[in-house]
Every structure is written in structure tokens, then in C-alpha cells.
Design a protein that fits this description.
This protein is α/β, with parallel strands linked by helices. It has one domain (2-11, 26-140): Nucleotidyltransferase, domain 5 (2-Layer Sandwich). Helix content is 29%, strand content 33%. It is built from 4 helices and 6 strands; from the N terminus they run E-E-E-E-H-E-H-H-E-H. A 6-stranded mixed sheet has the order 1-4-3-2-5-6. Strand 2 and strand 3 form a beta hairpin. The protein is globular, with a radius of gyration of 16 Å. The relative contact order is 0.18. Residues 32-140 form the YprB ribonuclease H-like domain. Pfam families: RNase_H_2. This is YprB ribonuclease H-like domain-containing protein. It comes from Clostridium scatologenes.
Length: 148
């Protein structure tokens, strides 16, 4: 298992580029930005890469966490790390949103694997999902075709 934690400096924030959802421009301060790379053969097999980050508005930094599987023996361990990460972000840092880009499949995979391995964590009970692709399409009234 490979585990990485990086902190990135953030330059000046620009309100004109902030996504506004229901009139709120600063949801990113209460959000985690989440992505998975996973292996599926008819049913989800494992998570290959778990990536999540959050913005620290006091330090003006982006805190990035990645877990990468190296072999099949890491399949359960990466899920346990993901659960612990989500619990810490929800309880200690009071994060309320999970932001993805077309992340419905990521939720399906991680929830399936949490259940398969009896991890006992319900993402939807802790976070509201914001899909950037859907929000963009609503705002621009334009459907992104990412098949090409």
C-alpha cells in the first residue's frame, strides 16, 4: 500500500470562478473533493486509488490524501483507510459535502465494497453529494458528452 499526503499552496481565490449552488459560493470550505480509480469485472473488485482533498481556509492550502493499492492483499485495508478518513473529515473537520466529477459510479463502487467487506460506513449519512458535471450542466444548460 502506498499512502501519500501532500499540502499545496493556494493562490488568491477568485469569487468569479466559484461554483454557486443554491446561492452559496463558499461550499468548498465545507467540502471534500473525491475521486476513485477502481477495478470492476462484472462486480466491483477493489479500489486501485482513493484520492481526496480539502481546502484549509485558515492556512490557504489544499490538503491531499491518496491511498494506492499495490496488491490484492491491500483491498480491504484501503477501504478501512477510506472509512477512517471520511469519519475524521466529518467529525473533526466538520466537512459536509463530497464533491466529484461524474462520481455516481465511484459511490456505487465504494458503497458496494464497504458492504462486501463489512466495513460499516454509509457515505450518504455523513455527506451530501455534489457532482460538478451535473451542476455545470444545470448552470450552462448544456450537456457534456465525454464519450469522445
Amino acid at each position: 500500500m502506498i499512502e501519500r499526503h501532500n499540502v499545496l499552496e493556494v493562490e488568491k481565490l477568485s469569487e468569479e470562478n466559484m461554483l454557486s449552488i443554491n446561492g452559496k459560493n463558499y461550499l468548498f470550505k465545507d467540502a471534500l473533493f473525491f475521486d476513485l480509480e477502481h477495478y470492476i469485472y462484472k462486480k466491483p473488485i477493489c479500489i486501485g486509488v482513493f484520492g481526496c482533498c480539502y481546502f484549509d481556509d485558515i492556512e490557504n492550502k489544499l490538503n491531499v490524501t491518496q491511498y494506492m493499492i499495490e496488491s490484492g492483499k491491500d483491498a480491504r485495508h484501503i477501504l478501512t483507510l477510506a472509512k477512517n478518513y471520511f469519519q475524521t473529515m466529518s467529525s473533526k473537520y466538520d466537512k459536509k459535502y463530497l464533491v466529484t466529477f461524474s462520481g455516481n459510479n465511484d459511490f456505487t463502487v465504494i458503497n458496494y465494497l464497504f458492504e462486501k467487506y463489512n466495513i460499516g460506513f454509509d457515505i450518504e449519512a455523513h455527506f451530501k453529494h455534489i457532482d460538478l458535471q451535473k451542476e455545470y450542466e444545470k448552470k450552462k444548460k448544456f450537456v457534456l458528452d465525454l464519450r469522445h
